[in-house]
Amino acid sequence: MVHGEYVTMINDFKHILVTGAAGFIGFFLSKRLLEDGFQVTGIDNLNDYYDVRLKESRLNLLKEYSDFTFHKTDIADEEALSSIFKAADIDVVVNLAAQAGVRYSIENPQAYIQSNLQGFGNILEQCRHHKIKHLVFASSSSVYGANTKMPFSVHDNVDHPVSLYAATKKSNELMAHAYSHLYGLPCTGLRFFTVYGPWGRPDMAYFLFVKAILSDQPIKIFNHGNMKRDFTYIDDIIEGVVRVMAKPPLPDPGWHGNTPDPSSSFAKYKIFNIGNNTPVELLSFVQTIEEALGKKANKVFLEMQPGDVEATFADIDDLANHVGFRPGTPIEDGLGRFVAWYREYYGV
Question: Which of 95, 140, 136, 92 is nearest to 274 (CA)?
């Protein structure tokens, strides 16, 4: 079960449920777990937020593994979700299913309420009733909202979201804490910082930029390029997730209600950032894509979009101290791999 640097998986974790298994992170996590010898049950509703064919392509690769079982199910469907939990002896749940995207939450808020709130509530209920040993769930760097103190720390208050998407992710953290306190459910929330790489999401900027440049179309540069992002390569994300899975949180003996630390608790609850700890300026990011493609972009400079933030920057000291790992893939390497995959997958 040794894979790369990852050697600490607890032996009695055999069967992992991954929601959002046909999604970008869910696909890579499921593949990694299957390669490490685990039994994986995947759930995904295969919605059309972006090209379903890409999700199906990922899923077809997972179906090649004999220990993979897939259910086309929406986590907001309580009855269907319950039947899956009843039929399988699941040890750990990794909830990656969610309606993603900041800007789409402005156009279609109901989708976020259904998936990210109702759906996550259903996941918590099933974990509670089936005595799940560890629930790991996706949060987001978006929860930092109006915060401007850099780098973003899990010890800071995050009560000022600037999008409904961010608000739902913060809500997930609060809901998980309540379940951890009330029912003893070990819960770890992971705030992902701008995940990118092969097989990525077509609605993400890097994907859109590559597609537009290769098609001789202009790319949109928001806030006139005055933006920074802590881009995190997919392999680093997966390494962080599997290491966290192996260490269910314990109550923090130093936690006190007079000075409540948002990242830990008297309950079995923990929050971590997973980011590259190296913000990249947007125009530098575009230049790296241009160099990987060997082609210049036609840039259109625009104002900041509603719900967006100027910068993200992850403080990952807590993650490193907890699991002994720090993401560190250079942006040049990660984007180079994405461009190579894009050219092969789309034949361009």
Answer: 140
CA distance 158 to 236: 24
SS3 content of the chain, % helix, strand, coil (to 5): 40, 15, 40
pLDDT tens across the length of the chain (348 residues): 344 444 445 557 999 999 999 999 999 999 999 999 999 999 999 999 999 999 999 999 999 999 999 999 999 999 999 999 999 999 999 999 998 877 778 888 898 999 999 999 999 999 999 999 999 999 999 999 999 999 999 999 999 999 999 999 999 999 999 999 999 999 999 999 999 999 999 999 999 999 999 999 999 999 998 999 999 999 999 999 999 999 999 999 999 999 999 999 999 999 999 999 999 999 999 999 999 999 999 999 999 888 788 889 999 999 999 999 999 999 999 999 999 999 999 999
Q: What are the backbone dihedrals phi and psi of residue 247, each rounded to the nearest 5 degrees, phi first?
A: -125, 80
For residue 53, the surrounding DSSP H or E stretch is: helix 52-62
Largest CA distance in the chain: 59
- Burial per residue of 181-216, b for 16 or more beta-carbon CB atoms within 10 angstroms, e otherwise: bebebbbbbbbbbbbbbbbbbeebbbbebbebbeee
**Which tokens in the block code for residue 76?**
């907001």
Q: Which amino acids are annotated catalytic?
A: 165
